Automatic annotation (TrEMBL):
It comes from Oncorhynchus kisutch. This is Neural EGFL like 2. Residues 1-19 form the signal peptide. The gene is NELL2. Residues 270-324, 620-678 form the VWFC domain. InterPro entries: ConA-like_dom_sf, EGF, EGF-like_Ca-bd_dom, EGF-type_Asp/Asn_hydroxyl_site, EGF_Ca-bd_CS, Growth_fac_rcpt_cys_sf, Laminin_G, NELL2-like_EGF.
Amino acid sequence: MGLKLFLVLGLFCVTSVLGFGVDPALRINVFDELTLGEGFDGVTQVQGFHSESRAFHFQGSSREVKAPEDVSVRMLQKLRGRTEFTVLVTLKQEHLNSGVILSIHHSEQRFLELESSGQRSEVRLHYRTKGQQAHTEVFPYSLADGQWHKVSVAVSASHIILHVDCNRIYERVVEIPFMDIPDDATFWLGQRNSAHGFFKGVMQDVQILVLPQGFISQCPDLNRTCPTCNDFHGLVQKIMELQDILAKTSSKLSRAEEKMNGLDGCYCERTCSVKGVVYREDESWTDGCRNCTCTVGYVCVCVCLNCPESEQVNLTDRCCKVCRGMGKHTLLISKSLQESLQQQKNTWTQSERSALCVTSDLCALGHDFCAEGHGCVEHSDCINLEAGARCSCKDGFRPLRDDNAYCEDIDECAEGKHYCRENTVCVNTPGSFMCICHRGYIRIDDYSCTEHDECVSGLHSCDQNALCFNKVGGHSCSCKPGYTGNGTVCKAMCDGLCQNGGTCISPNNCICQQGFTGKRCETDINECKMGRNTCANDTVCFNLEGGYDCRCPHGRNCTGDCILDNKVKHNRQIWVLDNDRCSVCSCQTGQVMCRRMVCDCENPTADLFCCPECDPRLSSQCLHQNGLLTYGSGESWVENCQQCQCLQGQVDCWPLSCPPVDCEFTVVPEGECCARCIIDPCQADTIRNDITKTCTDEHGIQRFSGSSWVKHGTECTLCQCKNGHICCSVDPMCL
């Protein structure tokens, strides 16, 4: 099914170039909306990258460029609920500045924020996922170089493309942004808030287009060639909706088939109702001077005797003639009348047949008395009977009065009418009940639970190199073979240990110090034979244990110079690396030695970039996010799973580095920042959805991974397909 969808989308691909006149309803021109240049401190109009629109210089840290409430509402209305949009900006950012280009947030929740970090050479997109989780997508790229750049971030459902200067830099599949932005969210430009994230430099053409490939307006030569990821998601969503309709229709057909099958065991007697009296089929009665019979409705005729007309006489006390000398009357319906009745029988309506089906819902095939109005009110359904309607309490309810018009809920838990088993507690719900697992236990089925397996779920404290053993009320840890420790912390063991200062990083695997190699770091590297030395041409290289020496031949006056990258460095010369201003190297009798710069804060010429801790200026201090703490330049801290650093008055925060997890199902345990792999898909926070892995629901309908539905026969049980696994849970809003 998934393959067919991709083939269908492939047929949609076109090669036409979009002429980009953007509908104003789909464009948010931020400068125009904020009327920038009118009363914003720290913002001045300057010459831009081109002269077709205004450009503004953002400077200082005392500004507050925030959209007024009515303007913010108007802008966010265009963006709210959208899954396709493009953020555009042309900018020239100061060297090493880390600042926010624009930010839409509510309290601490960032719904959309574009940030450029000069300190770490990164572009960051912050947003919230559909699972209400904060997410940061990091693109390694430096914009803070003092040069003009055209920047575009295009979002189409789970698809993000970063363009810089009309070049596609990154294209990624990510979690879908959640753009249900609250009405009272705030819109900031050039800063995160009044205290943090100040962008320093010039910006021009800051826009948000509610289009998937808005970068074409910035770079018209970039052509849209295929449908967007959102187009695909929309198609999948429509198919999911059709699947849901099919499931509901199948359910109705199944119930109809059950009723139709019940018809084979039913006998529906035909009756006639005359003046409040019900007569069975073929039953006769007298109506004045007429004899009547119940035959497909009812027919009344005068009595005609079986004798020649010349033999029939009238009597004063009789309605009809009688035969002379006969005291016995015989009812005779003429042959023509019988034929007439047979013809009527073929065209009689169901209400005229008055089928009597008291014991089942088959009465609904007859006259619908319920449709004419009924008194069934609270938790009561109307049911059609032969001669009228009656009320019947819904399942799980009992009548409050004799006519069943009002019904009350039956508390199955209090009355012991439930099926909850071990490790559960019964909770009453309207018309039914639920079995809730005890704390620390997980569900087996709707009625029973088992002990929570902390090892399987990944919610344990064992080291990644330890084995987890589930126990009653907890778990224990034991280091794997080849590791030693208490299970919570396990260190690798190397047989024979690592030699020459090597470090054991995994069983029988050593990392060697410079100058040595081998499984146990037992072999010295000969830098002289392998060309790994910096000795000048006038010296001779001599191999040493773990290194080498540059020696001057006897009788010669050697310079002691070094050869590095085909360049001569003189003996005792000191220099700073071109690609790292904070690393200092020196030439020592033919050998190059490099180290990080030693910070001497008493030296007035200390490089404050490499030694931010030596910056004594108050302006270089940073305010913590809570507004209560201050940090000196160079200090670091962790906040909300982000590593933050203060550098010359600017705070830069980036996501904590987490080890990669290569698995289908992951969860971030409470109080932690990094995801762990788990086996149970129903406990996963994040799923690597594969639409080729479908689920079969209770109706036999195939569901795509990621689709959800309400379980048949329930109102509060929500089921979801997770890569071939069906996970159901009770909606707490129903309780």
